[in-house]
């Protein structure tokens, strides 16, 4: 469910960017921030910018650890992202591959007054059940604290100094360890890395800024502690999964997204601030959810089900077996925990 963390973070960033003037991503002309990453992803992130964020450099060095059905996967990352003159370059320095293109939605606030831009940002935040919950200091800077879908950001003059998200057992924390404002930044800092095979993204419709979908592809390596493996693509038809997710209507849940990630499907729903519901479809060949023997196994509406806490996960899950497609449907909710409530959700989806 790592992609859900990215989506939530993106929505928070969209709120911040929309509330700023079009010509200013940040209210600070230039700066440099060093972040410490913790949670399921550990490492560092370095951000430099000039011209109020219209030129920026971001370098991330990290290791992400995820666990599904007791199988641990670790992904090393060394990426550089550049924005300059309305263009972006994303470079994977491990694989020497990347993307380049035009920053999307640059003109979304054209012809708006400052008041209209701020209102649009506020309306966007509220539409997704978010809220501004107060003010707190980070590194001596008074930040506006924004909460959305289980994530929280501390924002100073449009700059995020801290963010925390924990959704469906995946935790991501970024904390600024150093923050320099209005400094001199060499223009050479915003030169895209050479020796990278860049794929031009302008021909594709970009759902997220600067190829964020590429970050959803979790490659991995075996560290010797646990078995690592590539996930087997699910046989359940994506069109059918998408139709069921789009048609889901129950107890005021709102659909946030439906996606297909290299043969594993997921959908996200929200109800207010704290009611998150995640749905995933994965092949049964990817592992036995009850390998730890912790789940209650039973039949409901003619389908084999498993209920309880899967090994390595914190939340309660309901797993539905679809033998015709050799598929598991997995339901995880932050607010629904009891077996009868989970079965109500299962019946409402009707997979």
Describe what this molecule looks like in 3D.
The chain has 351 residues and is of the alpha+beta class. It folds into two domains: 2-216, outer membrane lipoprotein receptor (LolB), chain A (Clam), CATH 2.50.20; 238-349, Protein Transport Mog1p, Chain A (3-Layer(aba) Sandwich), CATH 3.40.1000. It is built from four helices and 19 strands. The strands form two sheets. It has a twelve-stranded mixed beta sheet, covered by helices on one side. Strands 13-14-15-19-18-17-16 form a seven-stranded antiparallel beta sheet, with helices on one face. α1 (2-19) runs antiparallel to α2 (114-127). It is globular and about 65 Å long. The two termini are 20 Å apart. 31% of the residues are buried. The model is unreliable at 1-8, 10-22 and 205-229 (pLDDT under 50).
Please tell me the overall pLDDT.
Answer: 79
What CATH calls the topology of the largest domain is outer membrane lipoprotein receptor (LolB), chain A
- Fraction of residues in helix: 10-25%
Strand line-up of the largest beta sheet: 7-8-9-10-11-1-2-3-4-5-6-12
Instruction: Please identify the structural class as seen in this structure.
Output: alpha+beta
- State the CATH superfamily name of the largest domain: Lipoprotein localisation LolA/LolB/LppX
Helices and strands, in N-to-C order?
HEEEEEEHEEEEEEHEEEEEEEH
Cα-based radius of gyration, to the nearest Å:
21 Å
Name the CATH class of the largest domain: Mainly Beta
| Count of helix runs | 4
Shape: globular
Largest beta-sheet characterization: 12 strands, mixed
Number of domains: 2
Which segments are poorly predicted (pLDDT under 50) over 5 or more consecutive residues?
1-8, 10-22, 205-229
CATH architecture of the largest domain: Clam
